[in-house]
Design brief:
Belongs to the UPF0758 family. By secondary structure, the protein is an alpha+beta fold. It folds into 2 domains: about 90 residues, no CATH class; about 140 residues, Cytidine Deaminase, domain 2. About 55% of the residues lie in helices and about 15% in strands. A 5-stranded mixed beta sheet has the order 2-1-3-4-5, sandwiched between helices. A hairpin with a 5-residue loop joins strand 1 and strand 2. The longest helix is centred in the N-terminal third of the chain and has 23 residues. The radius of gyration is 22 Å and the shape is elongated.
């Protein structure tokens, strides 16, 4: 009887959360309530309030909970394979949504949306990832792809493979991005050397490298273009191309 009463109470609480969302939207929810409701999708008969609270206390933020690995989540009391699956499934859906949302849109008008997609897919990773966004002649987004993982340096990114991928996508322009697992947004000397090399190689193939983005922690992005670095690299490479030509 006690168990039956507990189940009824839990069902009523979850229904109130659902009604709250339908009536007031996501802004009315705390991060803990969002996590709790997501967890119930995997275990609808379980009380997930405490597990949600513990997960948020452990990882400090909603994005960090969604970015956490299965191994990390399994250490939280009350989390099992089914509700961990629910968290990771919604994370995967969000990634696909953000990626497909920008396809076909002009980068110059949708750069923030591209940045949002890159932040969502690259923030919180424990290793470096190098992503390329392929653009057509009108700078509309064609697609994006991860082309390298690990320590990103001038020796690990092969310009020939990058150009090959660009040609396969019929891309006229590119935006490249990589993450700093440390959370720092400051570009290293190697980051600048890599950007210079890629820009020069792309120039010879008449492909325009528009920007290099660095993804740190949180929602901040460092843009080489916004900081004036791309303009300087573009001028330097233009002089080299003239000399070679």
């Amino acid at each position: 009887m006690e168990k039956c009463e507990w189940q009824k109470k839990g069902q009523g609480h979850r229904q109130r959360l659902r009604d709250k969302f339908l009536e007031q939207g996501i802004e009315a929810f705390t991060d803990s309530e969002i996590i709790e409701l997501l967890l119930t999708f995997g275990t609808p008969r379980s009380d997930c309030k405490e597990a949600a609270r513990l997960a948020l206390a452990q990882f400090k933020s909603l994005p960090a909970v969604l970015d956490a690995s299965s191994v990390q989540l399994q250490r939280i009391k009350g989390l099992g394979p089914k509700n961990i699956f629910a968290l990771q499934f919604i994370q995967g859906v969000a990634r696909r949504y953000l990626r497909q949302r920008v396809v076909g849109r002009q980068y110059v008008h949708s750069s923030r949306e591209v940045a949002d997609y890159l932040i969502h897919t690259m923030r919180g990773l424990q290793h470096e990832v190098f992503t390329v966004v392929f653009l057509d002649a009108a700078h509309a987004v064609i697609d994006s792809a991860v082309v390298a993982e690990g320590t990103i340096t001038i020796n690990t990114i092969y310009p020939r493979e990058l150009v090959k991928a660009a040609l396969a996508h019929n891309a006229a322009a590119l935006v490249v991005a990589h993450n700093h697992p440390s959370g720092s947004l400051t570009p290293s000397r190697q980051d600048e050397e890599l950007t210079r090399t890629l820009h020069l190689v792309c120039s010879f193939m008449h492909i325009n490298l528009l920007d290099h983005l660095i993804i740190g922690s949180g929602d901040q992005v460092y843009s080489f273009a916004d900081q004036g670095i791309m303009a300087k690299i573009r001028d330097d490479c233009r002089q080299i191309v003239r000399q070679v030509g």
